[in-house]
Amino acid sequence: MPYKHTQFSYLMLVVTLIVLALFVWAYITASAEPVSYNSGPNFAMTSIMALIVFLLASFISLQVRIDEKHIAIKFGYGIFKKKFSLDDILSAKTVKNHRYYGWGIRVWFWPKMWIFNVSGFDAVEIKMKNGKTYRIGTDEPKKLEQAILKMV
């Protein structure tokens, strides 16, 4: 039973659009300054602004796919992704993340685990045979847990 689900973060979408609007405003304002004060936006600044928007946009969604051999997670358009072999999974259970765990890609040292999350606090905790723990955020934790347990 293959599984595929994408969770969107509307908050991150709004933040990305606000940052983009700010950068466009700054670019237009810098271009309008007289040459004696400012020579206009330079290539380095424009590149940094584009990189920031590009990175923010990559955390707008989190896709989880399960096939016969792997669980694959992918943020946005795929810059940040990870695969887990189903053979290496010891257990999976639905959990609630604490508010202070945050969103994005996080590593926590107590309890030691990696967290992949874009929105909300629901997640599925995966314990691996090598002792590592991962949490995958989702807005349908029971479905994801059942899909993993059926495949393991």
Structural class based on helices, strands and sheet pairing = alpha+beta
H/I helix tally: 3
> Helix-strand pattern, N to C?
EHHEEEEEEEEH
Question: Proportion of β residues?
Answer: 35-45%
Radius of gyration in whole Å, from Cα?
Answer: 20 Å
Number of strand segments: 9
- Unreliable stretches (pLDDT < 50, length at least 5) are none
Globally, the shape reads elongated
Main beta-sheet annotation:
5 strands, mixed
In percent, how helical is the residue content? 25-40%
Question: What is the arithmetic mean of pLDDT?
Answer: 92
Distance between the first and last residues' Cα: 11 Å
Oligomer: single chain
SSE map:
Blueprint: E1 3-8, H1 10-32, H2 43-57, E2 61-66, E3 70-75, E4 81-85, E5 89-96, E6 104-109, E7 112-117, E8 122-128, E9 133-137, H3 141-151
Helix pairs in contact: 1-2
Task: Characterise the protein shown here.
The protein is an alpha+beta fold. It is 32% helix and 36% strand. It has three helices and nine strands.
Features:
about 150 residues, alpha+beta, 5-stranded mixed β-sheet, 4-stranded antiparallel β-sheet, about 35% strand
Entry summary:
The protein is α+β, with helices and mostly antiparallel strands. 32% of the residues lie in helices and 36% in strands.
